[in-house]
Every structure is written in structure tokens, then in C-alpha cells.
Amino acid sequence: MGQGWRGAGGTPGKRTGGSWYLLVTLLLCGFWKAHSQTDDGKSVYFWETGPWGRCMGSDCGPGGSQSRAVWCAHVDGWTTLHTNCDQAQRPSNQRNCFRVCDWHKDLYDWQLGAWNECVPVSARTFGAARQFMCSGGEEGIQTREVGCTLKADGSPAEDAICEYFEPKPRLEQACLIPCPQDCVVTEYSPWTSCSKTCGTGLRNRVRSVLVPPLFGGAGCPNLTEFQSCKPGACVGPEGLYSLRVGPWTPCVLPQTRTARQAKRRKGKGQGLRERGGVKDPETRELIQKKRSRNRLNRQESPFWDIQVGYQTREVACIHRNGSRVGRNLCIPRELPLTIQSCVLPKDCQVTEWTDWSSCSKACADPESPRGTRTRRRQVLQFSVGEGVECPVLEETESCEPPGGSVPPCASYTWRTTEWSDCRVDVLLSQQDRRRTNMTGLCGGGLQTREVYCVQANAELLKYLNNLKEKDKAGQTQRQQKPSVPPLLSITFQITASRPMENQLCTGPIPNRSQLCQIPCPIDCEVSPWGAWGPCIFENCNDQTGKKGFKLRKRQITNEPTGGLGSCPHLVEAMPCDEPSCYKWQLVSLDRCIPDDGKQCGPGTQLPQVQCINSNGELVDRSLCSSSAVLEPVSCEVPCARDCVLSDWTPWSTCSQTCSSKTVEGKQMRTRSILAYNAGEVTAMVVAWITVMEGLSRVPQFPELYGGSLCPNSSALQEVRNCNEHACIVYHWQTGPWGPCTEDPSTAPLNTSAGTRPAADAQGLCSMGVQTRKVMCVRVNVGQVPPKKCPEGPRPSTMRPCQLPCKKDCIVTPFSNWTECSVSCDSGGEAVKRKQSRRRLVIQTPSNGGQDCPLVLEEERDCEVPKVCPGFRWKTHKWRKCQLVPWVLRKETPGAQETCGPGLQTRAVSCRQLDGTQADISECLKSAKAMPAITQRCQLPCQDDCQLTNWSKFSSCTADCVGVRTRKRALIGRSKKKDKCKNTQMYPLSETQYCPCDKYNAQPVGKWSDCILPEGGRADGTAAMKVQGDVKECGQGYRYQAMVCYDQDSRLVETSRCNSHGYIEEACIIPCPSDCKLSEWSNWSRCSKSCGSGVKVRSKWLREKPYNGGRPCPKLDHINQAQVYEVVPCQSDCSQYVWVAEPWSVWKVSNVDLKENCGEGVQTRKVRCMLNTVDGPSEAVEDYLCDPEEMPLGARESRLPCPEDCVLNDWGTWSRCSMPCTRNNSHVRTAYALRYPGVGRQCPELSDREPCSLNLNCFNYFYNITDWSTCQLSPNAVCGSGIKTRMLDCVRSDGKSVDIKFCEELSLEKNWQMNVSCTVECPVNCQLSEWSVWSECSQTCGLDGKMQRQRSVVQASQGDGRPCPAQMEQWKPCPVRPCYRWQYSPWSECRVESVVCGHGTRYRNLSCFVSDGSGDGESSMVDEELCSSLELAVNGDKKIILKEACTLPCPGECYLMEWSDWSSCVNICVKGAGVDFGSVQVRSRAVLAQEPENLQLCPDQAWESQPCTGGECFEYKWFSSSRPNSSRPAVWCQRSDGLKVTGGCPAMNPPVDNSSCDPPCLMTKSFCSEAGMCMCEEGFTEVLSPAGQLDQCAPIPVLEIPTAGDKKGDVKTSRAINPTLPTTIQPGRTGRTWYLQPYGPDGKLKMWVYGVAAGAFVLLIFIVSMIYLACSACVKVHRSLKAQESDANGTAVWMGQNSHEMVYTCPQCQELAQSNSS
User: 562, 1228, 1240, 1700: which could join 1236 in a potential S-S bond, CB 3.0 to 4.6 Å?
Assistant: First the structure.
């Protein structure tokens, strides 16, 4: 603080203030200049322009014009007058333009250039790039050229033309530049042993490359590390020299024949002299070659040009230091071969490419518009020796159909046959009893059809083909002017299409089943018989004769389907006498009027009648004039002392409907005594009265004399006969209607116009007639003559009908014959096969149509080719072994003999399997690898032992018993040589034990699914059928694979173990059991005895479903039943009535001694009876009648005495008038049967009662019941049904009454009583048939499986059986050994009889067997077992069994062999989703043996290649404490646990972290001086819960988008192929954008001026605050008193926060210093 204050008052302070002033001045000047001057520095006004408007013009093209707005503006942004701007610089407001029209879209298009190289964003930002640490990659930008061009010639055009149709494509995109990837290597291998056994040598350890350097990363470090070693001092001289063999020279031809002849001419004279002697070796060789060439060249194949040449190599003696010395210094030994025969390399020669074949797609197909075409070339000469192999002989490319008028391709679609008949039986459950008798089933059912594939446009293609043929023949339709276009004049014949392979149709498959409905027949229902009518004439218009009929009728209550013909007879007739069509009907009888005007006594009653007809209808009274008029009825009015009887009751119902000899009908009526008569007085009574009264004479008592007596009880009942007619009843009986036949009286409809009947096959073609039999039947007797029955109700015997059209059978044409696949047996003979074709019935015949053909499927034998197709290589005899020419080998030992190593060739040709010659190209395509045409050979020398080849081993009589032998023999002079007779060196026989092949079979793997025995299966063209009730349960078999091993535990064919490959075990697939319910219970009684109620029936659960059976319906918790039905029922309120018998005789309880009268009781029996048409018929239970309406069974009353008034019973109450109010009343009346005596009166003859609601007055209204459950026909399972409901008449007190009460009030009723409904059909899940078994998942091994599938054809519906879960089945494949060709390891590098140099290493190709599991071991077997395999190793057909190698000489520094390819590594950013591809690498390290030769070592090498499926690894630093050391061990480790060098992020040396515990191994961390882990600049610490550093997170950087930043246009692209070297240096990580003060136009941006203004204001504020602070300090200083102890001029005071504030006065310090001095 002190220094700062001093600086404020001195010279430095002035400089600082001057700097601030200069800065502010510059900023202000810049601001003023930018806003007060333009580029010319003279004006603050400038021209502004708006965007160009739309191009206008009358013509399309360059003749248009467009305009824009131009105005003058101030630099501050406001608009001013045009005169303020420079008119000379005014921009143009109009220009010519290109007017774009819609058709220009086909002429112009955007031309897109290639993306340029990805440039780091940091390179484009303002300012210099800063150093950074790369993590993942750097964001970059790619640009490209985009311009509008003319399509025709690519010439550039204005961008506005293309922008008219679509926006301009983006010019730049984001990309990612990957971080440099350093080379990653493995850890060092262990140290090798010392290169010397004595002296000073080297030990080596090597490592290999895991990841190559990529994207400019650090190169690979040394792969080899050397260490000197001294095993000990050498005793004696070291081996300093080695014999080294050089590489073979290229193969060359020996000296030409011309040169040899010239040489021969030089020595001609000597040759003539020696003509008769032995020729020299060269001459003999030339003669022999000439002879063999003439003989063998005839067998040469034209495809090989084999020339045998020779090649040489050098053998030198090498010192340990690598220098060459004389050969004599090397240890004497037999020199290796320096010359050998070879095949002169010839490259493969092929012909030129043939022309491209025609395009495979010769038709237009929108879904697959492109086809392929091929071209080929032939081999002229195969490669020989090490010549270049043949290139590809066939090329294929995509193509489009040529020409403009390309016919359409064949298209395919699904077709279906006619729906089958509707079947209900497939919906029946297992327990349904109707399964035993399926006749009459109706309702919902299921119908099926077949689905097949046809060619949709076959007719069109046929038509186009015909046109094409006519064009070829010159008979085109262009010569004739068609009236319509050709394609529109196609006429298709309606025929069935030919079935094709189902695989050709790709669209959705139509439904193969659907629900259907069989209408249930409605039975005829009739009402009960009505009462017999009166005896009437048969015809009332003809009333002759005295015979008539009584009729009774019934009505149809439910009309049946198919007309009324199925109803029973509705009329029955009974013959009777004295018929009458009209009669008088008694309505009532008037009151009894006594005769002669008396008050009582006998009289008459006049009847009131009306005229009715036989139907009971009122008619005119005149019609009854012929009938006898009812006479007045005699009656009697009782006098005052007479007995009073009630009126007769109505006659009861006749007990019989008819009479016979043994049975007669009876009727009965009764009456009762209402009052007894007055009794007569006896003489004793009169005498007693006289005495008691004291009378002088016997008095006279006329009132004591009795009236008319009451009759006895028998007279109170009358019985009469009724229905006296005989029991003879007739009726007309009809037979069923016959078939509809042609009516000859009507002409048939014209059906020859070619019209097709309706699709529903119910087309009606003509009118016909139906007849039936009608006969008269006597009940219980049989048929009688027709005259016995009345003619009136006789039914008709004939009716018209309509004949349905005939429907012929329609079948498809036969499908194409199935393909004949040609296969051959082991003997090369073609296997005979069959092919078939079939046709489908798409419409079944009916109504007499043409029947279907009997043959729907045909089969025939396939044509067997004479030659089984196939090709093979045929090898010819090896030619004679060819040696190096004698001239070249004459210096070698044994050159005088024609012996030694050589080369022999043979011819190879292509043959068919039957041996006939074939083109070589056929074998190249389909045969195995071509056999070798050259091989090394050895011509034995004279001293060599020659033997025949080994014979075959002798046969063994049995396995594991005895031995077998093979032999060979000496040939030629070898038989006489002693060394050849040495059987130890040249054995002539070999003996071995007979092979002991013991095989062991054992099961392997799991059991398969339980599989039912398979039935027949349709082929590919068969229509897809719906499975009806396919058996899916029962006994099946499951399989387990068997494996067979030999005694060496090698897998062999299962036939060796006498097994067919499986263990078979019976199994059971349980059959599904449906839910079982009980039968329907009986219908319950109607819930109401009067009106509408319900009745219920139920089914109960008997057995639950299992094994996938039909599920049970949901339990109804209300009714506690599984299934129930509720239907409304109607109970006739008058069905049961109370019937009361007559009242009994009075039982008087208080008897008057003088008269039989007084209080008494009457009883009667009341019974509930069934009411019929003829009246109550039989007694029923009392509960069936309404208890509220039950008449009284007993009554108490006073029995009238003589001369009392006697009334009849009260009549019924009159009806109350509506509405029911107490102001209204109703009455009942009675009349006097016996008038009273003198002085007595009759009671009131009427009784009145006020009307009271719900007591004696009621309102009535309709009540609608609930809907019933859906009712089906008894023969139906599901489908359409009816729900019903009923109307009920309800009284206002809630009681149901007879419907007539509501009908009498004419209440409105507009409810619908019936409605259709549907019961969901229980459709079982229907599955397709099992597909054929798939191919085995593995061609060999233990884990092979075969699978088959089935699909759901019809999902279950309703309560149908659900689909099973198992839609796939598997079974194991027969175990087959996995044979494969496999290389043996490379042998050591072999150099013949020398120490080092160029040699050869070898490997064998052997046949191996395994179980295919991958982890099992392979075993070598005989090569014959691999003979059927292609000669290839891991797919590589190029078999390499030897290769050149180098055996280093002692002391030589050399490259190791290539390491194995590393595992595939993905170059990526873990967790960021950025992927730069995968790579793998191999390397060669250097090995050294002599410290002196290290400078001669070759460079190490590595090579990489791209790969797929690499894993993304992370690299992290790890550390651990080391024993006996304070410094921890630090290493880099890959995420898979492998310790590596390279790959981990750069970090400070581990030694710097030794003071931090634990070490700071996190990225961007370091160990601080305080011993704590900190983060580098730009990163912040993220601590773990334990307080230790967890990671260093980057501090966010302010991102300010620049003018070129398009955040919406970002695309990540891979910048560089990781497998290729790159020189691009990595850029900056992240998106660090810098503030750019200059805009695209080079001027300062507005925010710069804003920042400058803000800084200026801030500066003024700071200066002001400093000034105020200084003035305050001066005041404080003046107020302080100087203290002597403070000689140095320092003032101290306490601030507000108790901080000491010290102020030092500079002048005071100077004074203090002078005082001290």
C-alpha cells in the first residue's frame, strides 16, 4: 500500500495517467472517426440498398428485369434526403435478370463439389492458436464449392435460377479432426539366452506393436533392447567362419539348340572318328530329349506352356563380422546343391472381355428397377511356376432395361377359391352332445377357402407378346388404324388363372377362414285350439241339405321360415245335424213379471237376443229370420212367505268334447236357498195359545199358514247332456312341397346373353312350380275320402317358384410342373425323381351344374440326364524326370550319370463325371482346386538302391486281431548290391498290428421337443389351406443326438457305432381339455303368475380346462352360475281362476222357534282352476291364482224370515271414473227377489262408496321389461340371435294385471319388442401345418439343430381354444464330424548341409477332425476323410506349404519373423460415440548376436491393415508401491488389463509425484509443493467424498458465435482414414471461440465501441474515487497531532473493520533521517 501511494505522487504516476489519457483519446478518436467519416473521409451519409425484387418479364429466360429500393442514410442509421448523399455514387435500382419458369427445373441443377480438407476452427479464429491438450478430437470445418449449372453441358449459371426451385445447399459443415494417436507397444518379452556360450555376446528382449501411430502421433519406439553378456572365457578358438547359401537365381532356359549345334560343328572331326563309340553325356541327353519331346508334346494341353529351365545359387564362406573369405577357410563338408531344374514362370493369359450380356431385367419393375449383366473372358494360358495368377474371369454390374418401351414385369397376386360351405360342427366344444348328431346345426359357423398365388398380368403380357410377334412378322397393327388404343382394346376372358409358386406373392395373405351364418329354421308355433263353433253349413250361400260342420280353429303365433307349409293344420271339422249359419244369441233375461198382474206367483221372463253369425259376430237381425226365436222363460216371484231360491248358475264346461257309446258329455248348474218359507202351525200349538190367552174359542191365524215349500237338495242341481255328437273329427293334411321344377306353361327367362349369375350363387334364372299332396284325414283313423272334409279350408296343391341357376365346377389350369432337381448317387448315376402339378377347385358345382374333374393332381417321372451333371479334373501320367542339362551340371559330382534331382510335369484336363471331355472353364467354376502340374523327382544313380513302391497292406481278418503287412522289392542292379541288401537300411517289408477300431456311442445334448409323427405335406404350389381339426396331441417321439468316438476319442460317423444318430423315446403331448359345463337346467317357473316376468336356466362348472382347452366363461357372481340365460315370460292373468262352488245350506246359530230364520253361516268350496277356452277345466295348486282375488269361502249373515225382503247378491261395483278422487264414487246394486210383507220394507238396493286411489280405484300404465339374454336357436352355437322384452300392464299399486286393462285405456305403446343380437362364436385358434424341417444350423458338430415353424392362421375368438405357446419345434441334427484342412506349424528354416543362408521352411496340410464346439481339441485323421472338402484353409484357397526363409549366420544381426496380427483395435473416443475405424498391426523386431555388428542391423518394421469389429480401449496410468523402495511403480495399462507403452495421456514425471500419497495420476493433475494433488491451469478440482482429488474438470470457456458460425448446420464427419499415414497436425480441442473485433467488412463491430465507452465511464469513476480518497486522507493527516515518539512520520489508526491503516508521510521520513544522522 505504501509503495502505491508513493507512486501516485511522483513521476511514475504522471506516466501512468498519461497512458490512460492516451488510451482514452485513441478510443474516442476511433469512435469519432468510425461514426463521422466514410471511406472517403468527407461525408457521414451513404447509400443504402434493399434486396432485389422478383424477376419480372413476359418471356422466360434472360429477358427479365428486377428492381430494388435505394435510399440515403446517416451513419447513425436514420434515413435522410437523397440530396445529402453523393449522387455520383448512387447504386442502380434496376437490372436485367433471368426470369425463371417451371420448366427450367429440368434444365438447371445445383452442382456440388467435394468437401475440402477438414480445417481446425482455431486456424480460422482471430488471434494465434494456443497450446492445448487433445481429448477426443478437434472440431473443424470443411468447405465445398456449390454452384448452379446447366445440366446439358455443365456451364455455370446464376444461383438465383436454382434457388427458385430449392435452397442453396450448405457450403460448409462441421467435422472432427482426431487427436494424434501415439504408437502403442506391448511389454518386453523375457531376455533371450546369451548369443554366445563363451566370450562376449548379446541378450535380446523384444516387444510388438499393438496400435500403429496415427494422425501424426509419436512413432513407435525401439522394439528390441540389447544387453551384453559374458558366459565365460572361451577355451580354444571360437568358430569364426560359416558356410552361407545364397538365394536361388531366377529360372532361365538352358543354352539354345543353335549354340549347341555350333559347338558340335567345331568338334565335328573328332565326332566322326568316334561315331562308332560311346557318345558323350551331352549328346546322349540331346538325343533322349528330342525323342521324348516328339512323343510327349502330343499330350501337351494348350492351356499350359511348360518350359523346364534351371536356376543356380551361390555358396560362400562368411566371417563372424560379416565379411566374405575364401571357401577353404570353412570346415570341409559336402557342398549343397548349387543348380536345379525349375519351371520357367509364365503369367496367366486371358482373352479380352466379351460384350456385356443382356440385362437380366428385361421388364419394368418399380420395386426393383435394376437388373444385372455379366461379361466373361476365357483363359488362354494358365500361370506356370511363380507366374501371375489368373485374374477374375467374370464381372457383374447393375443395369437398367434397355429401350424406352419396356414391357412390365410379371406381377403376382393372391387369389382365393370359393368359400366352402358353412360348418358349425368345428365350433362345438368337446362335451357338446350334438357332435354325435350334427344334422340340423345352424347359427354361427366357420367357412374356409384356399389361397393361391397367380400371375396378375399374365393376359397383358400375353397380349404384348402377341403384338411383338406380329411386329416381327411384319403384321403390325400400325397398318390398320385402330379405333381405340391397343392397350385399351384388350378383352380378358373370365377364366381361372394358373397357380404359381407361393413364394412369388409378397403381399399380405388374404384371410383363409371367416365366420359365417347358417340361418336357423323357425319352427311353426300355433295357439291352442279354440272352442268348437256352432253347427254351420259348409257354404252359407248354399244352405241345402241337413248336414253341416262344427269347426274349431287355431292361429299361427310364430311364422316359420320357408312359408306356412310346415305348419300343422289350423282347422278341424266335425259333422253335425241341423246346421245354421246364423242364430239368435241370448244377451240377458228381463225381470220376472208375475202373471195376471199379481205381486207374486208364477210369471215369465222375456229374453233379450241378438243375431250373430258362425264367427260370433253381430249381423243384421233379418239374417236370423229363419231361426226359431227364443221363447219367454217361465219364472216365479216368491210371495212373502214363500221359499226364495237364487238364480241358476251358468252351465259348467262340458265334461267331454264329443260323445260315444260309452262316454257322454255332461253339464251342471246349481242354485241355493236364500230364505225358507213360513211353516204351518199344528193343532196343539193352537190349543196352547187359546188356553194361554184365555180365549173362548179357537182363534183363526191366517199368517200362521206356510207358503210354498223349499225344494229338497236334489232339486237345487240340474244336469244335462252336452256335445252329444259323435267323436268324428276331420281335417286337411298337407305333405311337404316338392322340388321346384320347370313350369311348362311359362317360358323360361332368356339366359343366353352371357350374363353371369350373381356372386352369391343365388341367381334366379326362370320360374317353376312346386306341388304337394293334400288329403282328408280322420283323427285317429287315417286318410278318408275328400268329401268328408269341408271344402272351404282345403289347402292349395300347387304354387309358383323360382328356379336357381346352374353353377358349374370351375377349376384352375394345371400349375407348372415342379422343378426336377438333379442329384447323383455315389456311383455317379442320376437319382430318379418325380415332378407333379396340380389344379384347384375354385367353385364347386350346384343346382345340376357340371361336375368337377376327377383328376386334380398329376405326377410323372423326371427326365434323367444321360450324364450326371458335374465336372472333375483328370490328371495324366507324369512325364519323365527332367534334369539340369549336362553342360550346366558337368562340374558337379556324379555328372557323368543321368541321375539326380529333377522336375517332371503332367497334363491336366477337364472331364464330365462320365469321363467325356469338357471345357476347362467348367472345372474352374465347379470342380475342386486344380491338381499340381509339376513336381520334384529323383533319378536314381548307379550307386543308389532302387526299390519298387510299397504295396498295400494286407487285409485283416478282424479288428484288433493279428497283423497286416506290406512289401516292396529291389529292382535292377540293386538286387546284386550288398548295401541294398541291408534290410535295416532298406527294409523290404513292414508289419503292423491290425487297427483296433473300438467305438463308443454316447448321448449328447438335450432332448428335443416332443414331435408327433408327420403326415403328408403339400408342395410349394399347393394352396394354403386352413387346418380344420388337426391332431396336435397324442403319442409322439423326442430325440437326443448320439455321438460316436473311436478308441482315440476322435469323433467318427455315427454309423460306426451302428446308430442312425438318435436315441428315440416315446412321449406324450397332452390333448387339450375344454372347460366342461353341465347341461342346461330346466327353465325356472315364471317369476310372476300374472303379467311379465322372467325365467332362468343355468349351466354349472363340471371340469376346468387344462392343456390349452377352451376357457370357461366368467362366473356370474349374481346368479352363481357359469352360464345362465334369462328370458322374459308372460303369464296370462286369466290362465288360473278361482272357481267357487254354490253356497251351502244356512247353518242358523240363533234359531227362532217359530220361524227358520235368524243369524247363520254359509260356506262354499273355492278352488284354483286352469282356465281354458271352454272354461275352467281342472284344479291346480292354489298358489297359481292371485290370493288377493280369492273369493270368500264362508260368510255370516242373517237368514231372512218369512215376510222379510229378500235381495239377490250384490252386483259388481261400477268402475270409478278417472281421475281417482274422493269426489267420485262407484256403486253396486241389487234387486228384490221377494218383496216384504205388510209393514216391512226392503233395504237400500244400491250401495255407494267413494273412489280412493289404490283401494278401489286404480291407474294403469305399461311397464317394459329388461332385454333378455341373446337367444339362439336350440341347434345353434353362436351367431345371430334375438333379444326380446315384454310389455306388462301395471296397476298404480304396483300389481301386474291383465294386459286388457291397459289396452282398454288405449295407452300409447311404441317400444320395439325384438332386436337382433350376436353371440360371439367360440373360434378355436387355427394353425398352419408345420413347415418342413430347416437345414441344420451347423453342417457338422454336436450343436446342430433343425427347426420348423407354424403360424397362426386364425386367432382364437370368443371362448375358443387359445393358440398354443409352442410355435417352433427343434430336434438335434445327426452328429457329423467336423473335418477341415489345417496347416501344421512351420518347420525350422532348413538350409542344406550348411550353417546359414537362404533356405526353405515347410509345413504340412493335414486333415483334422473336431466336434465343432470351438473349445474342443482337434485330432489329425486320414486325409481321405477330407477328400470331399474344398482344398482351402480358413477360406483361403491358395495353399502354401513351403516358403523361403533365412537362417542367420553366427554373429549376424537380422529381423525376426513377422509377429502375429494384433487384435483388432477401434480408434475411438470412449464414451463420446466418435469412431475412426479399426486397425490391426504386426511387426518385426531386430535380433543381434554380436556387439560389433549392431551398426549393421536393419531397421525394425511394422505394417497395419484395416479390420472390423475392433474393441474401443482406454489407457490409464496405474501405480503401486514397490518393496524396499519409497518410489511407487507407475505403468500405463489398457482397459483390458494389458500393460503397454504409449497410449496414456502425457503426465509429469512420476518422480515429481513421489511426495504425494497417493500419486497424482489423474489427467491434468500435478503434485504441488505442499504435497497435494492440484489441477493445471484451465481445470478445476473435483474432490471425492474422502477429500482426495477425483478428476480435473475443464473450466467452461465463453463461446461467442462468429459471423461464420452456423450452429444449426453441424455434421460430424471422419476426417482421415486411420489406416493411412497422415501429416495433418492436430488442432485445438473443444470449441474455443475468440472475440473478433472486426466484422466481415473489415470495420470495427458495434460492440467494440460499446466496450470502449463503458471503459471510459469506468475510468472516470475510478479517477473520481481516487480524488475523493486522497482529499479524505489529507484531512485526516491535518487533524492528527504529531507525536515525538513517532519520529519517522507514521500515523496509525483503526479502520471500521479493526484493521490497522498506516500512512507514511514522505517528507516526515526525510526529516527523520536527517535527525538520526
Answer: 1240
